[in-house]
Specification:
heterodimer; A: alpha/beta; Hypothetical Protein Ychn, Chain: A; 20% strand; globular; B: alpha/beta; 5 helices
Chain lengths: 100, 130
């Protein structure tokens, strides 16, 4: 399953809920304000690194750019995709769950 | 592949309408089909043609109308959500005795059955909201 999260982890519990309920092997795509979870040097970094052992993490590149976040500062296990890549993820997973 | 898209947040208040638009464009560019885009809750505010953003800002409503015209998309606004928020087409204006309508080109007002139907017919349904 593909999970999308669109809220900053510093604002809402959407990412936490997703991590609690997503099955191992799922893909988690961080979009909109959730892209803040993908950056190194934050209080969440170790949690994301730990979760990366169970899930594939992706982040929407245009949303990083819109927030002035540098791709060089991403947690290294996280893959950057564009909107076309988002569509490809939706196609390659049998369903999509949006955590709002 | 057939996609259904749900937009449940209003334009200019949250990024969801923008993300939904960019995603929809990418779906079509990839050669997939969009069976329907369903506007629900505050998402119905995407469908008023009275929207007038500053000239240097994106025009979210016109952008949908243009995409719908180009690709013959079915843009459906939930009737109950629309009534609450004053989104009205010719029929609804008449039915409720309103002095005007404001539905944007390419949008139509219908019911939740349209959401259920696309849920059954589409291979993927994706929600963009707040």
């Amino acid at each position: 399953m593909l999970h999308t999260v669109n809220k900053s982890p510093y604002e809402k519990g959407s990412l936490d809920t997703c991590l609690r309920l997503a099955k191992q092997g799922s893909t988690i795509l961080l979009i909109e304000d959730a892209v803040y979870a993908a950056i190194t040097g934050s209080s969440l970094e170790s949690k994301i690194r730990q979760a990366s052992k169970q899930y594939e993490f992706c982040v929407l590149g245009p949303d990083l750019k819109a927030r002035g976040l540098d791709e060089a500062k991403l947690i290294d296990s996280i893959r950057v995709v564009d909107y076309g890549g988002f569509v490809d993820l939706a196609v390659s997973h049998d369903r999509v769950q949006s955590w709002l | 592949m057939k996609f259904g898209i749900i937009v449940s947040a209003g334009p200019y208040t949250h990024q969801a309408s923008d993300t939904a638009y960019q995603f929809s464009k990418a779906v079509l560019e990839r050669g997939h089909e969009i069976l329907r885009i369903f506007f629900y809750h505050d998402g119905v505010n995407n469908g008023t043609r009275l929207t007038t953003p500053p000239q240097d800002d994106r025009h979210i409503t016109n952008r949908w109308s243009e995409l719908a015209a180009k690709h013959e998309l079915d843009l459906v606004v939930c009737v109950a959500a629309a009534q609450r928020r004053g989104i009205v087409d010719v029929g609804e204006a008449k039915r409720h005795g309103k002095d005007a309508n404001n539905i944007a080109p390419g949008f139509r007002i219908s019911g939740l059955g349209q959401l259920i139907e696309v849920g059954i017919q589409a291979d993927r349904v994706i929600t963009f909201g707040d």
